[in-house]
Design a protein that fits this description.
9-stranded antiparallel sheet, 15 helices, 894 residues
Length: 894
């Protein structure tokens, strides 16, 4: 047999290091120190031990160096020599659960961390993520990664071989190799001669049957496993025992280069990789620990949509951009983005750590925003006692009704903008906090007279704004010299309306929505549906005998609140539901599930806003809210990272999965970034949320959107689920009482009904605005003190209106990120094509003269800088085709 004909088995020593799981991060890091010490010693001292893969997570080296700084030079030497492999991830994340920007920043900080130690692996190594996003080929290539090595998501009915070309939604392609039997496949190697030879024949033979080249990837390692110190000697024995094959120690980069050189005429797989025939992808993990998922989604949106743009605005006005603080916030999020952590498939004590990191990230982010808004507001030319600075972090002028939190006195007032226009408003809620606020006031300069009101209320206001400058700020002034307090008309009627919709509460407990634009009426809306969840922390699974409870027919307590800027239904009902799975099986409903709902129509807004509060008092169940679109469809539509995706509403595999012995039932419970819905080309409905990013299209005609609010369960792992037969995925003895989510739960989402195709209705733009509220800051002397920390008087030189940068009204790409560049004084703008139609292109035009340099997601230059706009004409950024993203480094031209 010639050398070219022999199978070449690439033995890859590695570990898959979960940062936390049924164990905590603290335990994991303590053991990581021991593990990395052993790896360093082996690579430096054991002859023939050439390589080791440290799970492609740069955070592991940061964790180690924090406690063992004396070993940093050893690590640099081994990483630089490409013997200790790390990167490109900071933590190994699940791709369908986190936001697009979180994924990008994870790779950015992961590659930066790996390069800091000497080298970042140029392989998209994903050993254990639960499925692969359809946009990853584009994202990988933006980071200079053209090869992809993974396990979960492809089965033999799609591709019987281990090698293929993976094409993403935008058309980007990467060379892909699957570890068909998992990253742990070669973790247990027997050492007795009588066991070793049949082991090799069986294990390697199975891999050869799937390979399309002579190259075999044979991973030696598994979760938190010790390094196999005698692996070089074992490889020598492999070669002595097996003359049909050549065994070598290797690492992923070299392996991928060799196998790609020998790969020809590969099949092309397109889109998401989410098949669970031979490996579990835990598709309904999107709703595991809904409380933690909701925190993750809200903080991700807050950082990218509000905090980073305000920091960029602040930097443009002369303040230092806090790169390291922002990095620390993101890294707290990445610790929680590690695939078990973000999955929520952990022990309760581990999820308590996850929740605390969210608290830290949120606290730092919100206080950082507060500081920079304050630094701007305190230097704006202002004589009024009550002025609020409003920040618009989108690249075009905005208006409309927005929510503001304020400390106000008892007097009546009017609100004006900087042009003197009176703004309609209402006070939604207020609480007397006089003693708390005034008791903390500090006079740094007692000689200066300041206004101290007699009473102070913490209030929530809705204000109808006229114009807030693009990517900038304006002010509104509270004028106490005139005006009367706005009234709220409260009634017991069952009807609200604005310019776009009329909503009526029906006797059966549902809503009927009339679209005033089209005259279309939508009945049976907002149906709450509760059913059992016999699953675990990995999978939703219905009980074998379920009892489904619907809110249809429930008696609703109804009141309305009507003001000049808002009409709102306040609804309440209590569902009688089974208290636990035993009652569901018996058909008993002794449990109570109180639900309070606020349905709001803001003036001039084509959204129906929902606020839902649930007092969860029962166990092991799932609550969804259903909207009947009247649009029977074979495809659902949802946003995905940097684009949109259409998915089938039913799967033919669902008819054969039991016969073919799939690992999981194929289901149409799907993920989204912020919206999901149905559209027939002429009209449509989408649900927009930053809560649980999970939906399903249901109904006999596949015409209803089911938005998951939450699901609960009692154990980390369970066996023989209806949707997942066989073994438990997690530890079945680990009870998770916290995952029952007992107590008060709150959810916010919106319904967008439109009379056009998805693209023409600009659904992605509407969703981005919904997730990007206008931020506000109140600067008042009586608040200066311990409440917000004392501040000295500053010279007031800034104008009352300011715009850093704006897009022309012809621009139709959606903004994903606006931030200061990491290594220059310019600003990073990232946009993407949001359209469903393959031929619909998107572009950006600037309203001012700017210097633009196209860069990668890694913020590396792709082309020379150019001035793309001047006083005579507006020149566009390159057009974006379907699902394409574009990142540019922008600065104002001289």
């Amino acid at each position: 047999m010639s050398e070219r004909e022999r199978t070449k088995v690439h033995v890859i020593p590695h570990t898959h290091w979960d940062r936390e799981w049924y164990f905590t991060t603290s335990r994991s890091k303590v053991y990581l120190v021991k593990h990395v010490k052993e790896v360093l010693n082996a690579l430096e001292n054991i002859e023939g031990f050439h390589y080791y893969l440290l799970d492609a997570q740069g955070s592991l080296l940061d964790d180690y160096i924090r406690w063992c700084p004396e070993d940093e030079e050893r690590i640099r030497n081994l990483v630089s020599a490409k013997r200790l492999m790390t990167g490109p991830w900071y933590t190994q994340t699940d791709q369908l659960v986190i936001s697009s920007e979180s994924m990008v920043r994870n790779l950015y900080y992961g590659t930066e961390t790996a390069r800091k130690y000497g080298h970042s692996m140029k392989v998209g190594y994903v050993p254990d993520a639960f499925g692969q996003s359809a946009q990853m080929p584009q994202i990988y290539r933006e980071f200079g990664i053209e090869r992809f090595l993974f396990w979960r998501g492809v089965s033999d009915n799609t591709n019987p071989r281990t090698e293929f070309t993976w094409e993403g939604s935008d058309g980007s392609q990467v060379f892909a190799v699957q570890m068909p039997f998992g990253y742990y496949y070669g973790g247990n190697i027997p050492e007795d001669a009588e066991d070793l030879q049949p082991y090799l024949e069986k294990q390697i033979g199975a891999l050869e049957n799937k390979a399309s080249t002579r190259h075999i990837y044979f991973p030696n390692g598994f979760d938190q496993a010790p390094i196999r110190l005698n692996l070089p000697q074992l490889i020598e024995r492999f070669n002595e025992l097996d003359d049909k094959r050549e065994y070598v120690m290797n690492e992923p980069e070299r392996f991928m280069a060799e196998i790609e050189a020998d790969s020809h005429d590969l099949p092309v797989l397109r889109g998401e990789l989410m098949e669970a025939k031979h490996m579990r992808i835990h598709k309904s993990i999107f709703s595991t620990r809904a409380d933690l998922k909701q925190q993750n989604n809200q903080i991700e949106n807050f950082i990218a949509n509000i905090l980073e743009p305000v920091l960029a605005i602040s930097h443009s006005l002369g303040h230092e951009y806090p790169h390291r603080i922002v990095e620390d916030i993101w890294k707290l999020m990445f610790e929680n983005a590690a695939h078990d952590s973000i999955g929520g498939c952990n022990s309760d004590t581990t999820n308590q750590d996850v929740a605390f990191r969210y608290k830290q990230a949120n606290d730092i982010a919100r206080n950082l925003l507060d500081l920079h808004m304050r630094m701007i507001a305190s230097t704006i030319e202002q004589e009024e006692t009550f002025a609020f600075t409003l920040f618009n972090t989108l690249p075009y002028v905005r208006g409309g009704v927005t929510e503001i939190e304020a400390y106000i006195p008892e007097e009546s007032f009017v609100i004006r903008d900087t042009k003197g226009r009176e703004l309609a408003y209402t006070i939604v809620d207020k609480v007397d906090q006089t003693d708390y606020v005034l008791g903390q006031h500090i006079d740094l300069n007692p000689s200066r007279k300041v206004y101290l009101p007699d009473r102070v209320y913490r209030a929530k206001l809705l204000v109808e704004l006229q114009e807030v400058p693009a990517m900038g700020y304006t002010q509104i002034i509270f004028d106490f010299s005139q005006g009367a307090a706005p009234t709220i008309e409260r009634r017991n009627d069952q009807h609200i309306e604005n310019e776009f919709f009329a909503i009526v509460v029906e006797d059966n407990g549902t809503l009927t929505i009339t679209d005033k634009t089209s005259g279309q009426t939508y009945a049976n809306q907002m149906v709450f549906e509760d059913n059992g969840d016999d699953g675990d922390s990995y999978n939703y699974s219905p009980p074998e005998r379920d009892l489904i409870v619907s809110s249809i027919g429930s008696k609703l307590n109804v009141t309305t609140a009507k003001t000049t800027v808002l009409e709102e239904l306040q609804l309440g009902c209590t569902l009688s539901v089974p208290a636990d799975l035993h009652e569901r099986e018996a058909g008993i409903s002794s449990g109570q599930l109180p639900i309070q709902v606020q349905v709001g129509l803001r003036k001039g807004e084509q959204l129906i806003r929902f606020e839902v509060q649930v007092q969860n008092q029962v166990l092991s169940h799932r609550l969804r809210v259903l909207f009947d679109t009247g649009l029977a469809s074979s495809l659902s539509i949802a946003d995905q990272p940097f684009g949109v995706i259409a998915r089938p509403t039913s799967l033919p595999e669902a008819q054969v999965w039991e016969r073919e012995k799939w690992q999981e039932k194929p289901i149409t419970i799907e993920a989204m970034q912020s919206y999901a819905g149905l559209n027939d080309g002429n009209r449509g409905i989408v649900v927009i949320t930053e809560g649980v990013r999970e939906y399903e299209i249901v109904g006999e005609k596949m015409d209803s959107i089911a938005l998951t609010l939450f699901r609960t369960f009692g154990f980390m792992g369970k066996e023989n689920l209806v949707y997942r037969p066989g073994r438990a995925s997690g530890e079945k003895i680990v009870a998770t009482p916290d995952a029952q989510l007992l107590g008060e739960l709150n959810f916010s989402f919106a319904l967008y009904i439109h009379n056009a195709g998805l693209d023409e209705a600009k659904v992605a733009h509407v969703a981005r605005e919904y997730l990007t509220p206008i931020a506000s800051y109140q600067l008042c002397d009586f608040l200066n003190g311990r409440l917000i920390f004392a501040f000295r008087d500053e010279e007031r030189t800034l104008p009352q209106n300011y715009s850093l940068m704006s897009f022309n009204e012809e621009s139709n790409a959606v903004l994903s990120a606006f931030k200061k560049a990491e290594h220059s004084d310019g600003y990073i703008i990232r946009v993407f094509n949001p359209y469903l139609k393959q031929n619909a292109q998107a572009t950006v035009q600037f309203n001012q003269s700017v210097s633009v340099e196209r860069v990668s997601l890694a913020e590396q230059s792709l082309e020379p800088a150019q001035v793309i706009a001047d006083k005579e004409q507006v020149i566009s950024l390159p057009e974006l085709t379907h699902c394409k993203l574009l990142t540019v480094l922008v600065s104002k031209a001289d």
